[in-house]
Amino acid sequence: MQTLFAPTVWLSGRLTFSRKYLLIGVVVLLALIALSQPVLQHADATIRRAELERAGLRAFVIQADTLMVLIEQRHVAIQDATQPPPAAEQQLLAAAQRHPELADAVTRLQTSWDAVRTTDEYSRDPQHRFATRTATINALLSLMQASARLHRLNVDSALDAACDLLTVRLPLVLETLGKQRDVLTLDLVELASYALGAQVVLAEAVPSLKTGVAQLIERRPTAANLQHALTVLLTGIQRQQDTADRALDDRTALADLSTLSRANLAQARLLLDQAVTAADAYLVAHIERLQHTQWSIAAILIGTVIAIAYLFAGIYLSTLRSLKNLSQGTAAFCSGRLDTRITIDTRDELVLVARNFNTVATEFQRLLEVIREQNASRQRELETLVHIRTAELAKSNAQLRAAGQRVQEELMLARSMQAAILPQDFPNEVTWAIHAAMYPARELGGDFYDCFALADGRYGILIADVSGKGVGAAFFMAVSRTVLLDLAINGGPPSEILAHANDLLCERNPMQLFVTACYGIYDPRNGQLLYANAGHHPPLLRQASGSITALDCAQDVALGVMDGLTYTDYTATLALGATLLLYTDGVTEALSPRGQEYGDDRLHAWLKAAVPADGAEALVNALVADVASFVAGAEASDDLTCLVLCRKSGELCVDTPLPLLDNMTVLLEHHLHARLGDIPPLAERVETALAERPDLALAANLCLEELIVNTVQHGLNGESDRLIHVRLSLSDEWLQIIIKDDAPPFDPFTEAPVPNIELGLDERPIGGLGVHLVKSIMDEARAYYDGSGNLIVLLKTLHH
Amino acid sequence: MSFQSEMLQTEQGWQIALSGRLDTTTCGELEQSLLEIFETAASAILIDFSALEYISSAGLRVFLVAAKRAKQSKGTLILCAMPAAIKNVFAISGFLKILDVIDDRELALAQLNRA
Asked: TM spans, by residue (chain A) (predicted)?
């Protein structure tokens, strides 16, 4: 099927709608023309044939006239020999000569005509004349029959009987009647046989005449008068026959016969004329009918073509409008107007297309709405999710921050604790002073230092550097410090302390950390230093002159590396004004922003230029500041620790005599244990001793309480069995109070911070007022350290 | 002479009379009492020093701590009728400027009523 229609589908696919319709129109037009052509041609041929027949009829009328003339002339010629021969009928001959088919008949007629003329000149015999003229009439009859054949008068089935009547029977009847009259007139011997022959001819002609007339009346109902003329003729023929029969016997009847014959001839002529008229009228009507048919076909053809063209134009315009609607609608939809709908008011298949388009558009729009809604919904979900996630993230961040802050706080707390376990109070004696500082690179450091008084009046100094940094190093630092301090406080030689500490640290060192350390014991009385070094930087000694030497050290191993090691003691002496510097590699390995190390040379140079007279604290601060300026804000690479021991150049204060008081009387000597509960009894005794001066008693008790509480709580660390000695003396002008303890050296009047008494309630710190009260109430307050303990001397004037 | 404190609760607030020696060994109880009272917001305390014989920095500390607490809890702490020697100790410490100290007891009571 597909293969069958492939060519037309192919053709249709390449034509616009207008050309498709044009093509169909042309094909239909050609088909109509092809169909109507044979009909028209047939009608045309029929018309031509009818025209030919009419021409034949016209020629026949002339021939019939000529025949009538020839019959009448023969009748005259047989009676009168002078009668001239008839002139050749030129009109008839000219008409006949146009048709080559009639040439023989015309020649015969011409010949017989010439014979008539010859006969008329040479023969006076009527019988001869009769014969020649009869021959002419026979030639004419032949021509008439040939002419009838030529004009197809005998072929037309519609008029065959009528033509037979006209062209054969009637001329024959006329000739027979005329000849019958002439034969009787001539009175020939063969009359009887001729009369019989004529009788036969007429009798045979009657049926044909009746048939011909009936056919004509059938074709032309208006020619009913033909029947009457035929009836009259037949009656006349019958009467002529009867008269001829009678004339055989009675010659007088000939006159009647001649009359009858003339009348019959006239009647026959009348019938002939009427028949010709009827036949011609029929042919004219027939031609008209055929022409009308032709016009009808043409009109139908043109009408059909116009109707088809009109119809196609309508279909084309309608389709075009629908297609335009579809095209515009589709274009509008494609350009984004999604609410476009196509309305087509026809009832063809394009409505289906439009309906499908509208369905698709509606569905598309609905789907788009669904998609939009889904997108919006998804968007909302996403936003909600983002909000939730953001909130969760914020919460996590807050938790992280809190955790980080907690860790930071813990670290800061650990840092504070680490700083707290390192001594912050340093001895600053009349003859010597120590100061130290540790700055961890991170929150927690691995360096540490310590300084502590030994029982025999000597002083221990320690500096150490734990390998590594951070929390692990800090823990190891705390352990190392505790171990070293516990061992050192008993006053053994540094080499033993370090060896013992090494063994202890090696026992519990899961992280394989180690610590370099330098431990020395300083004797303030003679400036002697006994020290040992476990892998640490050798201490630097600066003489008063400014010369720098690194102290001798053995190549001993750091603590915690392996147990069973021994360490070596060395001695050195600090002359008056000499300065000893202990430091960790955080000093020498401090990096500048350009990556340079601070280095030994820079450290030596700094120490050489230092001014020891400013004091140990000032030296430590200056070194830290120098390193800080060298590092210039770069991140510290390692913990920085340094310890400075200064032997002052001045005289020993302990040798300075107390101011001598005139007439000094001891009011009270009191010993009390270093416990707070022992203070109230002392107060009671003071009040008793100064009963006369309650103001002095209050002042004395106040000062005693403040200073003794200080010593008990800080100097002796709650060692309640230690004794404190108090003495009140009175001179003429002064009350003297002396307090003696055996605590480590401490000068409350120089070292205790001075409170700011101008601060408001909120800013005012709690505590720190005791020493301030003593200094305010007393006129003189001084502290001494005599090597075995602190001696505090207070003086207050007796005057108000 | 040991330290004593007589505490009297009135409609206007607490009236506390101190006597004896207020020192390191005796100050603890008083500090606790005062801080407990100031636990209640907007409490008022009038302390009569007229019978106090002695005070040390430990005693001063009690009143500084109490005054800070009073301020936090919108309370009132009025010190009155200090003997000269006691007042001198307050003066040396700079406490006369930051504590509400009134010499006359009646004036102090009037102020307590206003509080």
From this structure: 21-40, 295-317
Q: Give the neighbor-by-neighbor strand order of the sheet with A432-439.
A: A432-439, A640-647, A579-583, A540-542, A548-550
Residue type, A689: A
| Ramachandran region, residue A336 (left: φ > 0; alpha: ψ -120 to 50; beta: rest) | left
Please report, for the domain that includes residue B22, its CATH number.
Answer: 3.30.750.24
> Where do we find the tokens 């476009």?
A340
Tell me how far apart the alpha carbons of residues A771 and A751 are, in angstroms, rounded to a whole number: 10
Using a CB-CB cut-off of 8 Å, the residues of chain A touching B34 are none
Residues B5-52: tens digit of each pLDDT: 999 999 889 999 999 999 998 999 999 999 999 998 889 999 999 999
| Cα A144 to Cα A721: distance, rounded to the nearest angstrom | 195
What b/e string do you get for A701-719 counting C-beta neighbours within 10 Å, with b at 16 or more? Answer: bbbbbbbbbbbbeebbeee
Closest residue in chain A to residue B23, using alpha carbons only: A705
- Tell whether B115 is within 8 A of chain A (Cβ): no
The fold of A422-647 is Phosphatase 2c; domain 1 (3.60.40)
A-B contacts at Cβ under 8 angstroms? 72
Closest C-alpha to A747, from A799, A783, A707:
A783
* Beta carbons of B89 and A773 less than 8 Å apart: yes
CATH number of A658-797: 3.30.565.10
Q: How many domains, chain B?
A: 1
Residue ranges of domains in chain A: 16-301, 349-421, 422-647, 658-797
The alpha-carbon gap from A783 to the nearest alpha carbon of chain B, in Å, equals 20
Whether the complex's predicted ipTM is more than 0.85 is answered with: yes
pLDDT at residue number B91: 92
Tokens of A694: 């309650």
pLDDT for A676 beyond 80: yes
Contact B21 A683 (CB under 8 A): yes
The answer to whether the CB of A71 falls within 8 A of the CB of A130 is no
Query: Per-residue pLDDT tens for A514-536?
Result: 999 999 999 888 888 999 999 99
A776 close to B (CB below 8 A): yes
CA distance A493 to A532: 9
Number of Cβ within a 10 Å radius of residue A438: 21
pLDDT at A658 over 50: no
Q: Is B78 on the interface with A (CB under 8 A)?
A: no
Strand order in A569-573's β-sheet? A447-453, A459-466, A515-523, A528-534, A569-573
The closest CB to that of A764, out of B23, B58, B64, belongs to B64
B72 touches chain A (CB under 8 A): no
Residue A772 and residue B93: Cβ atoms within 8 Å? yes
